[in-house]
Structure formats: structure tokens, C-alpha cells
Amino acid sequence: MTDAYIKRILNARVYDVAHETPLSDAPLMTRRLGNQIFLKREDLQPVFSFKLRGAYNKMINLDEPSRRRGVVAASAGNHAQGVALAAQKLSVKAKIVMPVTTPAIKVDAVRNYGASVILHGDTFDEAAHLAAEIVEAEGMTFLHPFDDPDVIAGQGTVAVELSRQAPAPLDYVFVCVGGGGLIAGMATYLRYVWPKTQIIGVEPEDAACVRAALDKGRRVRLREVGLFADGCAVAQVGKETLRLIKSHVTDVITVTTDEICAGVKDIFEDTRAIAEPAGALAVAGMKKYTALHGLQGVSMAATVSGANTNFDRLRYISERTEIGERREAVISVTIPERAGAFRRFCNELGKRNITEFNYRYVDDRVAKVFVGLSVTPNSADLEQLTNKLEKKGYSIDNLTDNETAKLHVRHMVGGQAPCTGGSECVFRVQFPERPGALLKFLNALGNDFDISLFHYRNHGAAYGRILVGFRLADGRRSALLKVLADVGYPHWEETSNPAYEAYLKPKTASAD
Q1: Are 94 and 31 part of one and the same domain?
Q2: Which residue, 52, 343, 407, 455, is the most exposed by fewest CB within 10 angstroms?
Q3: Left if phi > 0, otherwise alpha if psi is -120 to 50, otherwise beta: which for 378?
Q4: Last-in-domain residue among 305, 324, 343
Q5: What integer pLDDT is reported at residue 351 of this predicted model?
Q6: Range of 281's domain?
């Protein structure tokens, strides 16, 4: 079976539309990580991702009657562009079903290649369901984005180039993972030509369908799929791709959104190119795996798989990058409310780069300071600073991993309302960033609940995020929880969050 795939990969027809992309040195990461780092630059393809390889190889292998009937694809964007370009090249009619949450830059690119675009659902799986209905109704051919031997073989040509371009067999190769098409094709070929190379797949932790399948010993369908790395927003790994992954891949690890954002920055600093979140997955995983296993003096490559991202999403990526790199910490500090106390606290910080200062008067005794500051990554720098401040009598809360603090509270410091009766409950709510999603949430609440706090940010990501507070009379909590469950948006209660308590929680009035 392996020999058959090797033949498929070597015979794959991709260069009618695809380019052989370079294997670039990454000198900055090489010095910082202490390993020889290479980047396989699939972001330089005509559609700015590797996906056109598999799409074209599949379409060129269709018989003539199938081409005349046309093709249908479901995609979060990059596969769609590959199909659209292949269809244009071969004069084949194409319909592409894309999730409503797909970045506009990808939707526009597909339309520019002449394909018909249908926006449907929030995830790939919802789009795929409609695509299947179109196939049934119109007799068109479905082009699967990953779970197809011809698609897998087309993606495998990335490994053929890599093996020829590298100065010697590499110790490690890191590959981004969505449904598994790229890593299945690459791992099959690399295991054949470089049997000792460690092949590591990298998934977003909120869309880790391959890791879940490996843990369970079978394919599973994720109940929720994160959309930040939209190119990898897949709820279930393919049947054929999982089989190949089990046979040829060493390990599959997951990375956080902050780690992905840091990966985008790393790629930019070494290449001056801006990868999309899914495109930076492999770099984020490479850095994490190197740190976890203490790797030094080895050679490794990571795929830069795509560069299709909305420009306005860069605000969010930039904001989260330093935390993802562990170069910035966010802390809350309680200081005495007296003349000179704020200056004394700043002196204790010393000549450290301060990224953010938010000061809030609390009462005549204490004040709260929300601080962002630079720290040395992968060191005890923050712990030493915290210990130093605590010995000086300061109360410290480390909020670096506190989502509510990073997404909302840092923009709201200064808003403690007086307590006027009833208890306030606070929730963080997440919903797909598309027209009408916020209104759906507010309409579900109706006029039944008194909203006492509300913060919403649109920063170009695939999710909208709200911090909302409700002033609840006795007995109303269960009714609120039912409404939130019925709306169906992921939500988390943050009433006991230390950042909320320090900066936003209503202040009890003092007795006269």
C-alpha cells in the first residue's frame, strides 16, 4: 500500500498550476532555538497555500463526463481557492460551499477565479453537508479537501520537494494538521525516503480532531471547533488520512491561540511574510516541542502552509503575540492609596519595559494597578519579580493566562459601579463573527434581564467575544442559565474571576 502511494505522489500532476516553493533558512529562530531551522514556504503558491496541489491532482484525474458535469467543494477557504483555480485552468464548472465565518479575503479570491460561492454554516462540516446535497441533486463530483487518495498524493509533493531541497535528511519535520491531507501525504513520502526522521503534526488545541482520534483509538467528531485557525477548523479527521497518520507520523501535539500568534510573528521576523493562523501552526508546534523536549543541535523544518488572512485580524494577533511568546506578563497589583505610593511601585519595577498601565482608585485605603510588562521568556523572571514585590508588601495576581483579563478587563479598568441591589453575575460569551450573531444573543435575552455590564470587541477574528453582567433578583439565575444554554453559544461564568473582582465588581456602599 505504501508503494502505491509513493507512485501516486511521484506521478501527481501539480505543476500545471503549482510552483516548487523554496525551503528557506530561518536564521533568527535558528539562533534562538539552538537548532537548524528551515521553513517550507507554501505561502508562496499562486493561491497562497498548498491546497491547489491536491485539488488540481484530483481534478486532472477525473474522467471527461465528470468534468463536464462540474465539481463541488466544501472549504474554509484555501481548498476552495485551489479548486477554483484548477477549475479555471481545466474549464470545469465549480460550486464552492464556504462557511459564513470564512475570511472575506478567501471568499473574494474564490469568486475572482470564476467559481460560484455559496456561504453556509459556521464550520467546514456544515458546509460539507450542503455540498453533499448539491452532489445528490445535480450529479456533480465532490472534491474532498483531504480524505481522498488523489488529494493526499498531490499534497505529498510538498515532501518530494523538501527531501530534494534539504542539505541532508532532517531530524524533525513539523506539519500543520486540519483534516490530515497534508501530513498524510508528506509523512507517507518522508517515512519512505527518510525513515529516521521524526514527523510531528501540530493542531490548534480547540480543533484537535486528530489528537482526539489517536487518544480514543478511532475517529471522533468534536462537539465544538475553534475558528481562529480557520484553515484547520475540522471536527473529524478523514478515515484514510488517519490510517496514514497512524502508520507514518511520530506524534501529534496541540498549541494555543497565543502560541499560534507568536508563530505568526516569528515567521514575519525571519521572512517578512505574514502567515495566516493555520499557516503558522507548524512553527508554533516546533517551538513548543523543542522547549518540552530540550532539543538542541538538531535540524528541523516546519511548513508555512498559508497566508490568507484578513488584514484587520492582525490587530488581535499582534495583541496576543507577546503573551504567546511569554515575553509579556499581565499582573494586577494592590497598592496603598496614599501620596507617592504609585511612584514607589514604579521604582520597584525598575528599568523594565512597561507595555500597559491601568490605574484604578478603589477607596481611601487601596488602589488597583493593571500592569503589562516585558519579561524574559522561558525563565524565572516573572516569578522573581512577583516574589520581590510580595516581599515589599504588595498583593499580586498573575493574569497572564486569564482570558477575561486579556480580552475585556484591560479595556474596562475604571468602571466599578455602586451596588444598588441584587447580585451581579458575569459571563464571557463567544459567538461566530458574522452579521446578526450579536443581535441573536440580545434578542434571546429580550427584556427579561437587567444588563449591568457589557463589553464587545470586533478585532477581525472569527469569533466575537462579549463580557456581559446581569443584575439578578432572587430566583432569576436558573432562568438566565436556561436562556444562555438555549442560545447555544459557548459561555463561561466569570463572577469569581479575580480580574473582574478587582476592577469591575460593583462596590458595596460604605455605612454612614
Answers
A1: yes
A2: 343
A3: left
A4: 324
A5: 72
A6: 1-324
Instruction: Mark the ranges of the chain whose per-residue pLDDT is less than 70.
Output: 1, 322-325, 339, 360-362, 378-379, 414-422, 432-436, 457-463, 508-512
Within a domain: 511: no
Residue with cell 477574528: 461
Domain membership of residue 281 (yes or no) is yes
Positions marked active-site: 51, 305
Residue 509 lies in a domain: no
Q: Quick one: how far is CA 46 from the chain centroid?
A: 23
Which of 130, 442, 457, 489 is CA-nearest to residue 320? Answer: 457
Q: How many domains does the chain have?
A: 3
Q: What cell numbers appear for 470 in the block?
A: 446581569
Distance CA 266, CA 251 (A): 23
Does residue 22 belong to any structural domain of this protein?
Answer: yes
| Domain match, 381 and 498 both | no
DSSP string for 447-511: TSSEEEEEEEE--SSSEEEEEEEEEE-TT-HHHHHHHHHHH---EEE-TT-HHHHHHTSPBPPPP
pLDDT in tens, 227-257: 788 888 888 999 999 999 999 999 999 999 8
Query: Is 399 within 8 Å of 499 (Cβ atoms)?
Result: yes
Q: Are residues 312 and 223 in the same domain?
A: yes
| Residue 72 DSSP symbol | E
Q: Cα separation of 256 and 495, whole Å?
A: 24
Could you tell me if 277 and 166 lie in one domain?
A: yes
CA 387 distance to own-chain centroid = 33
Q: Do 426 and 493 touch, CB atoms closer than 8 A? A: yes
415-461 residue pLDDT tens? 555 555 568 899 998 876 665 677 788 788 887 888 778 887 665 55
Final residue belonging to a domain, choices 350, 378, 401: 401
* Residue 475 pLDDT: 77
The verdict on 320 and 330 lying in the same domain is: no
Give the C-alpha separation, 141 to 66, whole Å. Answer: 7
Distance between CA atoms of residues 22 and 216, nearest Å: 37
Tell which residue, 236, 191, 189, has the closest CA to residue 216: 236
